[in-house]
Amino acid sequence: MTEILAPAGDEKCAYAAINAGANAIYLGLSAFSARSSAENFGYDALEKLIAHAHLFGVKIYVAMNTLVKDGELEEFIKSAVKVHNLGADALIIQDIYLGAYLKKTYPQMCLHLSTQAGVCNAYGARYAKELGFSRVILARETKLSDIAEIAKIIETEVFVQGALCTCFSGQCYLSSFAGGNSGNRGKCKQPCRKRYSIDRKGFEELAYRISLSDLSVGEDVEKLIEAGVSSFKIEGRMRRPEYVSAAVNYYKNLLDGSIKKCDLSALKRTYNRGNYTKGLAFGQDKSFLSAAVQGHIGEYLGTVSVESGKYILRTAESLSEGDGFKILRGGKEVGGAVFGGKVKGGYILKSAQRLKNGDKVFITTDGKLNAELLNKKRTLKVEISARFAEGEQPQVIVNGAMYTASFTVERAQGRPFTVENFTTCFNKIDTYPFEIVYKNIDIEGEIFVPLSLLNAFRREVYADIYVNHCPNGAEMIDKCLQLPQAEKPSKCAKTAVIARSLSGVKADIGILKPDDYFKDFSPLIKSFDGEKFLYLPPYLTGEEIVRIKPLINAFDGIYCGGNYAATLAKELKIKLFAGVGFNIFNYLSLSLCPADYVALSKELTVAEAKPLARENTFYLTAGDVKVMDLIYCPFGKSCGQCDKRDIYTLTDENGRAFPMRRYEVSGCRFELFNCANLVCENNFTGKLTDLTADGVTYKNHTKGHTEAPVL
């Protein structure tokens, strides 16, 4: 059976997911979660939730999927061990090497590799399995054909509903560099949801140019089932419990064949950004971008009619006090409205904005629906049999488990104990989600049972059922082992340069980053005397890797920010330069990375990077800083009108210009660079070695500089 996996940013969302019928829930701790803005969970709340979830066979996956610095390692390991011992069914980890360390040190742990690790092809899946992960959460950009190949290798989790990230998973640094808030550290401020202009005809106006519609795979989940997907993931740890309930209900009904039109309606009304897209697994569709509307758009109901100075909505829908609406004109949001009363054939809308005839009305808050979604209750059927006899200790059998009371039944001196006395007592379920069904209640003779003792016995029985109905099957971890010592910093004597042409470049290592991977680029490398590496994008499909393999023969190795490159380099028996996208953040991960050369994460400060200096490590010190990899076309695939320039400029509302480079693999891809170049003037002698990136160089790009990134 395919798992329906629901998000929980707080306890209300978690219990809404259980009550709606989710098979599993993923959530974050108060620390080390990629959604730090969510309420998240402390240990006590987590323990309580795990017990409640396991009662219904619902699994709990705990996201500890941020990048971890050296000084945080000990606390991170302790937290991971505690979460495991509380009964979590799996931990979600972003850092593939930190996960490998956990699995090697504590083999009892079940680990899922976060979507932030960017697994998108079979090479990445094999690597995750090799390092001890039992499941991969695939990048949202993964093609359906690659999903099928990955599912043959390892258990696979795929997003089917919710927000889409603009950037390829784990490779987004825009929030970090443009605002000082790292998405990889759980602090993303979502700059992709802001307004931008692009210097191309038809795109000059400020709009939500890189904001994507919400994903809703819908009935195409059947294709994912055929591909072998194990878990359907609903995004939304920042969303409300009614959304969680509606989304779980929608996919549950899709899978069991009981889907109704109102299920999709409920989903749209609880959260819907951009009227949905099927996502890149099924190809970039016309609704992929949501340039005109940002945030919840709801469900379309009709248009505004201005009558006698009032705004009237004519609809057969049943609306009521507390309902809220969004108003669109010409595809753009112009304001909101609330329920203002009934009129014949419709309803009055109250709005602070001046509305016009024909304005479109979308319902974004449906009070009755929300109440209905949150009133769902999931109960556990509890079958009870009992035996009471004089001189014996009472016995109760609950769902096959026998419980014996600590007291002995006596002969009745007055009114005897009855079946009704017993059921009245055991009907008191307190806050437990039990549905009591009585089978055989055997009372022999006239007996006396003290109700105070029976009540205490009932509480013991129900508490044991609640906690131990579905116990954690994993072996407990006795204690945290001491972390290994880090190596002393050492100097790397080499320099490396990433460039679109290596002609005229002076460096020990030259990394060619071609504009077109399937054009002859031998002229770009023939005059370079050092080690030659081919830059591979962090996202490649399996088909693209097959096509690129022969091109690698002209190089000494590959440079890549995607983990899949470790398996590819091993297969081809060539050198691996682990790029900044590997996000090497601490000495444990560095020690386990098998690359010949390693570029440390560009989100580390100089002070944090210096202890990680080794004979094979590099630190980005100059040049253009890539902040996003876009696997889609920001122009909506309007290929017939496209001028296909190498470089465009994305400009925000503050006038900051971000270069956007177009390159070709199997069609166009785009890279977004920071609005200022990196020029780090610190003295690195004896510690760190320069890695220079020349991603974009063109006349309109103002050369600026910034210090090393500060998180």
The counted number of beta strands is: 35
CATH class of the largest domain: Alpha Beta
Mean pLDDT: 92
Computed CA radius of gyration, to the nearest angstrom: 30 Å
Strand content is 25-35%
Uncertain spans, ≥5 residues at pLDDT below 50? 682-687, 697-711
- Structural class by secondary-structure content: alpha/beta
CATH topology of the largest domain: TIM Barrel
Count of DSSP H/I helices? 17
Describe this structure in words.
- This protein is of the alpha/beta class and 711 residues long.
- The protein has 4 domains: 3-164 and 213-282, Aldolase class I (TIM Barrel); 299-374; 380-468, no CATH class; 496-694.
- It is 23% helix and 26% strand.
- The chain has 17 helices and 35 strands.
- The strands form 6 sheets. It has an 8-stranded parallel β-barrel with strand order 1-2-3-4-5-6-7-10, surrounded by 7 helices.
- Helix 9 runs antiparallel to helix 10 (261-270).
- It is globular.
- The two termini are 42 Å apart.
- Mean pLDDT is 92; it is low at 682-687 and 697-711.
Give a quick precis of the structure:
This protein has 17 helices and 35 strands. The chain is of the alpha/beta class.
SSE map:
Layout: E1 3-8, H1 11-20, E2 24-28, H2 43-55, E3 59-63, H3 73-86, E4 90-93, H4 96-105, E5 111-113, H5 122-130, E6 135-137, H6 144-151, E7 155-162, H7 174-179, E8 196-198, E9 215-216, H8 221-226, E10 231-234, H9 241-256, H10 261-270, E11 299-307, E12 310-314, E13 324-329, E14 332-343, E15 346-350, E16 360-365, H11 367-374, E17 380-389, E18 395-398, E19 401-404, E20 410-411, H12 419-426, E21 434-444, E22 447-448, H13 451-468, E23 496-499, E24 509-512, E25 531-536, H14 542-548, E26 557-560, H15 564-572, E27 575-578, H16 587-592, E28 597-599, H17 606-609, E29 617-623, E30 626-630, E31 647-652, E32 657-664, E33 668-673, E34 678-679, E35 690-694
Parallel strand pairs: 1-2, 1-10, 2-3, 3-4, 4-5, 5-6, 6-7, 7-10, 17-21, 23-24, 23-35, 24-25, 25-26, 26-27, 27-28, 28-29, 29-35
Antiparallel strand pairs: 7-9, 8-31, 11-12, 11-16, 12-15, 13-14, 13-16, 14-15, 17-18, 18-19, 20-22, 29-34, 30-33, 31-32, 32-33
